[in-house]
Amino acid sequence: MNSLIESIYFRMPQPIKNLLVGIKAKKNSKIRLQGKYKQFVKELNSNTFKDLDALRNLQVDKFKSLFIESVDNTEHYKELQVYKKELDSINSYEALLIFLKKLPLLDKESLRNSEVDNIARDADALNFTSGSTGSPTEINYDKEAMRYSFALWKRFHTWIGLPEEYSSVRFSGKIIIAPQQKKPPFWVYNKVNKQLLISTYHLTETNLKAIIDKIDKFKPQLLDGYPSALYVLANYILKNNIQLSFTPIAIATTAETLYSHHKKDIEAAFKSRVFNQYASSEGGSFITECAYENLHLNLDSGIFEFQNSEGEDALPGESAQLINTSFRNLKTPLIRYKTGDMIKLAKEAYIDCPCGSHMPIVDEIIGREDDILFTHEKGFVGRMDPAYKGLSNIKRSQIIQHSPSRIEIVQEVDEGYNKTLENKLISNFRDRLGSEVEIEVKIVDKIPLGKNGKFRSVLRKFNLEEIE
Ligand SMILES: [Zn+2]
Q1: How far apart are the CA of 211 and the centre of ligand 1, in A?
Q2: Ligand 1 centroid, distance to 266 Cα (angstroms)
Q3: Which among 78, 99, 256, 404 is placed 20 to 30 Å from 240, CA to CA?
Q4: Rounded to the nearest whole angstrom, what is the distance from the C-alpha of residue 291 to the centroid of ligand 1?
Q5: In angstroms, what is the span from residue 59 Cα to ligand 1's centroid?
Q6: How far is the CA of 360 from the centre of ligand 1 (A)?
Q7: Phi and psi of 19, rounded to 5°?
Q8: pLDDT tens digits, residue range 265-322?
Q9: Is 412 part of any domain?
Q10: What CATH number is attached to the domain comprising 421?
């Protein structure tokens, strides 16, 4: 929305806002849920339970189409034309992996600056993704890409047990309510999709009661969105011992790293399961959690390669960067894209999951490479969430690492917070980051949100490459 339309929209009475959101949703679903959408959903649902060989063959076929379109129609991949003649000889997944290794990696910088755009397809939608360094990248989608993406979402929801149609509450970074608004409603209702959209920019102590009352009255079957937003609500519900009058079928989190202590509290507050979903915001492949707490690689959404810190193929159990070739978007094709996201591989990737899927699993979505801390004493330190274990009265916490020797922990706390808790937190940090690093705790009223309303739990102010 441009700022004039936005300011007019903000002044509209609530029923008009709801109506406008409904009109927009109707228009969107015309694009998203038509064409091949239903066919995609059907195919994807049947893929969930296919055996591994069938899935691998499907990956080979999908890769060949992706590769041909990319080298024929994009400036960036044009130079890979020479490899086209080798495609015919790729007749197994193993052969495909060998072929892939010959192709160059695509990094974020090249994606932003070069012409990774399929000129044979129309740009029907545009998605901006914000890089950690602040420079947004434009990703074009065509209609088919949007439909495939929405079909993947739909399959995830079916996989975790949601019915064909369901009501939902969504927390996303969209600005739907004027930022300066002080009184409820802090939400809009999209009747078309039975979806209550809640502003993630208004989750302050004074507003939470009204928001939770609204959700309780609405009784959604699904809660979805940013885990940091869901956690703020969960924390308030638990602290005030609020008993909700409904139980959602599922809670689905996306777009930010889901930390285990957040998951635990969200599940306790809503008495329902949290299901994690991951896909890089540049249009990458999906990793989704099933009812048996296994994170399955959605093989029909792309090819997953994992590279360890030495740039070699990662071994089972190792933490590694995801290198992704995605089948989601042929308008902006990603071939061997360095996502910058770290995944911990399972010791045993091929299991007989009771959910019935043969798609391999990974152990954990660690998060963005940008979220990794570094100290000279301890080296690279991944997830810091265990450092908060057992510590109450912290509403939100952001770790800012200014240099390898200085860390600042910025926190929103409630009245029960005290020095003993703070000392325990610092000592937990020291266990992980060493005794030499300077650690300072700062209490603030509100930690500002990052781009797209996402909460950044870690901000590292220097590049890992700069470390001497
Ligand atoms: Zn499973």
Answers
A1: 34
A2: 21
A3: 256
A4: 6
A5: 20
A6: 9
A7: -65, -45
A8: 999 999 999 999 999 888 999 999 999 999 999 999 999 999 987 889 999 999 899 9
A9: yes
A10: 3.30.300.30
